């Protein structure tokens, strides 16, 4: 059964960006939608995939 949620480390590995960048995106609301499970940040795989499609070549630039 494939994972339906990604940790911040999982997403960092998937996108090839440092964890601090993901925290910055979260604080500026420019990255994929996320939620907190207690004190842990989690990303729904469907939200990540939708965000990736929206930011393919020719899409908007994110910092």
Describe what you observe in this structure.
The structure is a single chain. Strands 1-3-2 form a three-stranded antiparallel beta sheet. The protein has one domain (5-54). With 63 residues, it is an alpha+beta fold. It is globular and about 35 Å long. It is 44% helix and 17% strand. The longest helix is centred in the middle third of the chain and has 10 residues, at 19-28. The model has no long low-confidence stretch (mean pLDDT 89).
SSE topology sketch:
Layout: E1 5-7, H1 8-15, H2 19-28, E2 35-37, E3 40-44, H3 45-54
Our count of domains comes out at 1
Shape: globular
Order of helices and strands: EHHEEH
Strand content: 15-25%
**Helical amount:** 40-55%
Mean pLDDT: 89
The class by helix and strand makeup works out as alpha+beta
Please count the helical segments.
Answer: 3
**Largest sheet, strands/sense/barrel:** 3 strands, antiparallel
Number of strands: 3
Distance between the ends: 33 Å
Low-pLDDT ranges: none
Question: How would you name the oligomeric state of the polypeptide chains in this document?
Answer: single chain
For the largest beta sheet, what order do the strands appear in spatially?
1-3-2
**Backbone CA Rg:** 11 Å
Quick structural overview:
This protein is α+β, with helices and mostly antiparallel strands and 63 residues long. 44% of the residues lie in helices and 17% in strands.
């Amino acid at each position: 059964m494939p994972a339906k949620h990604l940790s911040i480390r999982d997403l960092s590995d998937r996108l090839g960006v440092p964890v601090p960048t993901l925290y910055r995106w979260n604080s500026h609301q420019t990255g994929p939608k996320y939620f907190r499970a207690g004190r842990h940040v989690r990303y729904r795989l469907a939200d990540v995939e939708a965000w990736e499609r929206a930011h393919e070549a020719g899409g908007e630039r994110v910092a």
